[in-house]
Write a structure and sequence with these properties.
The complex is a heterodimer. By secondary structure, chain A is an all-alpha fold. Chain A has one domain. Chain B has one domain. Classes of the chains: A mainly alpha, B mainly alpha. At the A-B interface, α8 and α9 of A face α4 and α5 of B.
Chain lengths: 222, 244
């Protein structure tokens, strides 16, 4: 069973390694959205530090949506997705593997870029550390919940925009707790409560969303 | 008589046709009665003066926005579990009314918030979660609109409704869990209401009116959906012939 999971992971990572442009776009999008805010609201260091955590979290959320619309689309297009669903291996593992691959391709680069953007936003080292930790807990949620949305909107016209409409409301708790943790660290009220809730939300989505996404995939492929 | 008879769209179409006038008329009369209580019988509030009268619209709308979502989730779950066509049609028929009541709740809340809090909008837990409920309604309706295949649309929309149902208890308990600007519930099943009896009466009458209105319009809508989906059957052709 875990061999199937590893096979899905390896396949998606190989595909991503062969087509670097695809996932680099999402990372550049992340950097650009974050860079627009200082230009829009003004460069005062205090204000940037104040809005920084929220802006970086929103930018990470939008960047995940940009890459999620492709999660099943390419495999659906060439027909291989139907074969993977029809295979005797559980669809839940297929979906979980795809979500994990998405996190490795999208989440880890975000984790690597976020400190640099944090410096641009004048965040303190403590705040950047908490930001990293909150993104580490939070970005898997985005990949997991996003896989549900990607499965529901598979092959629809305007699927990408629709995915945004469906999934953003579900992302809200991750956004609140993730940005709240960094805010708490900066205000001195502590980040632990927010990080605990974020971790609980991550575990919850890890337990539930592969099943829902598998059901959604079966509905979409019927 | 077996109640499951009405799970058949053909039988339900005729039953709904007979029920709609009853629900519509009682909703209309109760609305008039409720508004009369609200505007003429209920006394001026000690703290909030006349502005509090918005609750006769606001509270029933907010209740219905959450209740309709749960009913949609219920029909969606029944449909997914037992594959009954009519349950999906009911879920689809309810969604626009749910979105409407959510919008009314937010709108009247803003009208009330301006004189009371000095702000049209604050980002507290109750308001934010109600806004997210509106987004969920819009997302579900958009998903239904985007999927041409009826069966896939029904199932995908119901699945999304079920996921979003977790938001409803968050809205309901938000005033207890968080320290919000929005006041706590004035009514609960376990203790005496913290408002005058006549105000409570007006609010309940309006809530029942909103509930009956929802049933009436949902039945009207579900009849349209039945006609559209069963258009290839003989009994629908017969109805359409007779109407022409």
């Amino acid at each position: 069973m875990h061999r199937f999971l590893l096979a899905v992971l390896r396949r998606d990572l190989t595909l991503a390694a062969r087509r670097r442009g695809d996932w680099l776009i999402a990372q550049f999008f992340f950097v650009m959205v974050a860079s627009l805010f200082p230009l829009g609201v003004g460069p005062e260091p205090e204000m940037l530090a104040r809005i920084g955590p929220g802006v970086l979290w929103v930018a990470a959320t939008l960047a995940s949506l940009l890459s999620l619309s492709r999660l099943f689309a390419d495999d659906h297009h060439d027909g291989s997705l139907e074969h993977m669903v029809l295979s005797p291996e559980p669809t839940v593992l297929l979906v979980l593997g795809k979500a994990m691959a998405h996190w490795l391709i999208y989440g880890i680069p975000v984790l690597l870029i976020a400190p640099v953007l944090g410096i641009q936003f004048n965040l303190s080292w403590d705040a950047i550390l908490v930001l990293e930790f909150s993104l580490l807990l939070g970005t898997p949620i985005l990949s997991l919940l996003g896989s549900v949305g990607a499965a529901l909107t598979l092959g629809l016209r305007g699927g990408g925009v629709l995915l945004t409409l469906l999934i953003l409301p579900l992302y809200v708790p991750a956004l609140i707790f993730g940005a709240g943790a960094v805010d708490g660290a900066m205000m001195g009220t502590g980040a632990e409560a927010h990080l605990s809730l974020l971790g609980a939300f991550m575990v919850l989505s890890l337990m539930i969303s592969p099943w829902i996404a598998a059901a959604a995939l079966r509905i979409s492929l019927e | 008589m077996n109640l499951y008879t009405f799970a058949s769209p053909a039988n339900f179409y005729h039953l709904a046709g007979k029920l709609i006038p009853w629900f519509a008329w009682s909703a209309g009369l109760l609305t008039l009665w409720g508004l009369y209580i609200g505007f003429f019988l209920a006394p001026t509030d000690f703290q909030q003066s006349e502005a509090y009268r918005i609750i006769f619209i606001h509270v029933p709308a907010a209740w219905m926005s959450m209740f309709i979502y749960l009913v949609m989730a219920f029909w969606g779950a029944i449909g997914l579990a037992f594959n009954t066509r009519l349950s999906f049609m009911m879920a689809r028929a309810l969604a626009p009314t749910g979105a409407l009541f959510t919008f009314i709740a937010l709108w009247t809340g803003a009208l009330w918030g301006k004189p009371m809090w000095g702000a049209w909008w604050v980002w507290d837990a109750r308001l934010t979660s109600e806004l997210i409920l509106l987004f969920l309604y819009v997302g579900i309706i958009a998903l239904w609109a985007a999927i041409d295949d009826v069966k896939r649309g029904d199932r995908a929309g119901s699945l999304l409704t079920l996921i979003g149902a977790i938001n409803v208890p968050i809205i309901y308990f938000s005033v207890t869990w968080w320290n919000t600007l929005h006041q706590g519930a004035s009514i609960s099943l376990t203790k005496a209401p913290s408002m005058a009896a006549v105000m409570l009466q007006g609010m309940l009458v309006m809530a029942i009116a909103a509930w009956l209105y929802t049933i009436a319009v949902a039945l009207v809508r579900v009849r349209r959906i039945i006609l559209e989906r069963e258009r290839h059957t003989d009994w629908v052709k017969e109805i359409l012939e007779n109407q022409r």
